[in-house]
Specification:
alpha+beta; 4-stranded mixed beta sheet; 9 helices; 10% strand
C-alpha cells in the first residue's frame, strides 16, 4: 500500500491527520505501507523570523483580544488532545516552513527515518521552535540521525527546492486547495483530519 500525504508543518490539522492515520495503520495491523510526504505551503510569504506567537498574530490580524484569539484556537487544541497531541499556541511562531520541508526530504531520503516528520510538527506546535531558523533545523535533523554539516550544506543552497516545486505543481494539478490531503494507492482520496473510523475504512482493500 502506498499513501501520499500533502501537508504543511504549520498546519495543525495536518499534524492531527497524520497522527490519526498512524493510529489507523497500527490498529489495522498493516505492515507493508509506503508513505510519501509531499510539500504544501499554506503561507509561502510567512516571515523568516517573528516576535509574535500565533495568538498575538491572530489578535493583530483580526483586531480581537488575546482571549478571543485563544477561543479561536480552542477547538483545534481540543481536537489534537483527543488524539494525544499537544498544541501550544502561546509558543507557536508562525514562520516559513519551506526549509523544514527541505530538511525532511533530505532525512527521508538518506536516513529513511520517518520520525523527522513528527519531530518537526512537535517542534513547531509544542516547543515553539522557529522552523525557518537554520540552527533550529540543524538540531532537529541531528536528532533524526542527519549529519550537521550535510544539513548546513543543504540550507545554504537551493537543494530540494525543485522537489518542493514539483509537489506543489502536482497539488495544483490535482486541485488541492487545502491540507491535509491523502491519496491511497493512487485511487482513494481523503481530505482533512478525518476520524479514525474513516481512515480505517479507507485502508481496507
Amino acid at each position: 500500500m502506498k499513501i501520499e500525504i500533502w501537508a504543511d508543518y504549520s498546519c495543525p490539522f495536518c499534524y492531527i491527520g497524520k497522527k490519526t492515520l498512524d493510529d489507523a495503520i497500527q490498529k489495522a495491523g498493516l505492515k507493508d505501507v509506503e508513505i510519501e510526504f509531499k510539500t504544501f505551503l499554506l503561507d509561502p510569504n510567512a516571515p523568516q523570523t517573528t516576535d509574535q506567537n500565533t495568538l498575538q498574530h491572530l489578535s493583530h490580524k483580526y483586531g480581537v483580544s488575546l482571549t478571543h484569539a485563544r477561543e479561536m484556537t480552542d477547538n483545534v487544541t481540543q481536537m489534537a488532545k483527543r488524539v494525544g497531541l499537544t498544541l501550544d499556541f502561546d509558543r507557536v511562531l508562525p514562520t516559513r516552513t519551506q526549509d523544514a520541508h527541505r530538511v525532511a526530504k533530505l532525512a527521508l531520503e538518506t536516513t529513511k527515518d520517518r520520525s523527522i516528520v513528527d519531530r518537526l510538527y512537535r517542534a513547531y506546535f509544542a516547543e515553539g521552535k522557529n522552523l525557518a531558523d537554520p540552527n533550529e533545523l540543524i538540531q532537529i535533523a541531528k536528532q533524526s540521525g542527519l549529519d550537521e554539516s550535510r544539513v548546513s550544506q543543504l540550507l545554504s543552497s537551493d537543494e530540494k527546492n525543485a522537489d518542493i516545486k514539483k509537489d506543489i505543481r502536482e497539488a495544483r494539478e490535482l486541485g488541492i486547495t487545502g491540507v491535509p490531503f491523502f491519496r491511497i494507492n493512487n485511487t482513494k482520496i481523503l481530505k482533512g483530519a478525518q476520524p479514525l473510523e474513516v481512515f480505517l475504512k479507507a485502508l481496507q482493500p
